[in-house]
Write a structure and sequence with these properties.
This protein is α+β, with helices and mostly antiparallel strands. 45% of the residues lie in helices and 28% in strands. A 3-stranded antiparallel β-sheet has the order 2-1-3, with helices on both faces.
Length: 82
């Protein structure tokens, strides 16, 4: 499966990404090898995941989420928690 995820960084910022393995990817981010953006904002916590059927769908969804404002992303995260 393919996943889109949102990480909350130490400074409160949000990072959106795509992966096929959530736990591996979060571990990479927390080891400082995940992305340049998160490297200086460790530790990170995965606060949102969305499972999609194809890589294409996941990448399109990632792009759509990245266009959201911080507040809109917070609403998305809150709605997923119930």
């Amino acid at each position: 499966m393919d996943y889109v995820y949102i990480l909350r960084c130490r400074d409160g910022s949000l990072y959106t990404g795509y992966t096929t393995d959530i736990s591996r990817r979060v571990k990479e981010h927390n080891q400082g090898t995940g992305s340049k953006y998160t490297r200086s904002r460790l530790p990170v916590e995965c606060v949102y995941t969305e499972e999609l059927v194809t890589r294409s769908e996941a990448l399109k969804r990632e792009a759509a989420i990245k266009k959201l404002t911080h507040q809109q992303k917070e609403i998305l995260i809150a709605s997923a928690k119930g």
